[in-house]
Amino acid sequence: MTAQNLAPVTVIGLGPMGATMAETFLANGHPTTVWNRTAAKAEPLVAKGATHAPTPADALAAAELVVISQIDYRAMYDSLGPATDALKGRVLVNLSSGSPAELRAAGEWAAAHGADLVTGGIMVPPPGIGKPGSYVFYSGPEDVLGRHRDALQVLGDISHVGEDHGLAMLYYQAQLFIFWSTLTSYMHATALLGTAGVSAGEFRPFAAQTVRELAEDGPMGFLKILTEEMEARTYPGELNSLRMQAVGMDHVVEASCDAGIDTALPSALRDLFARGVAEGYGDDGLGSVFEVIRKPAAQS
């Protein structure tokens, strides 16, 4: 496909994510129409070749493929609600954040107005959009996604995770939780060592080694081992029982308290381990905490 006949795209929402997506479409030759509730945000993109739509209805009329990047799904209803007559035949690719239930309801809303909804979660910050390593989780009708795969591919590698509109957000939130909790635990560990005069730079190589070892595919790769245990629902604890881990977490909390730093994060982990022991998993391995996580605390 040549630059002259690349599919047109409309981008709704021109915050850091939406503006970067619009720039990426433009840089890859796609005729790009933009709309934002604050019209001034469109000016830098217009200077780069985008067309500014004066109204949401005009934005919808400009392209079959409409990429939405707003603060939440309520913003989509607020923006497009007055223009529902223009939704028929459109493919709405919403990359905004929300709960899985919200995304499923949005799929029904779009269908009621003759549109198809594809939901998504883009797994890089704005500077990474369209760069190597960028990828996006999508869910919704795979055939609809397939029709616009070439255009959407410029944002990042496409991972279609299922027809259920809520799945993309579940994947997105699961990945963010790993990201946030890993980095926050590194912050806590660095703060703990910092009370003894150890710098972040001194500690970083050891933290990096731990993260690498977690992801290894070999016999000592903890993610691999844990995945096998969770799928089999068996958690050998002969060498490192959960009871032993719970005692160790008590010591981490004590060390943090003695060091005078915040104890919220290790205390939460200590309490989770303690729940597992109380539920009868003390002689099982650390993986048995999965069984505790799978049910609400009130039922544990």
TrEMBL record:
Residues 164-295 form the NADPH-dependent reductive aminase-like C-terminal domain. InterPro entries: 6PGD_dom2, 6PGDH_NADP-bd, HIBADH-related, HIBADH-related_NP60_sf, NAD(P)-bd_dom_sf, RedAm-like_C. SUPFAM superfamilies: NAD(P)-binding Rossmann-fold domains. It holds the Pfam family NAD_binding_2. GO terms for molecular function: NADP binding; oxidoreductase activity. Transmembrane segments: none annotated. Keywords: Oxidoreductase. Residues 9-157 form the 6-phosphogluconate dehydrogenase NADP-binding domain. Belongs to the HIBADH-related family. This is 3-hydroxyisobutyrate dehydrogenase-like beta-hydroxyacid dehydrogenase. It comes from Actinomadura viridis.
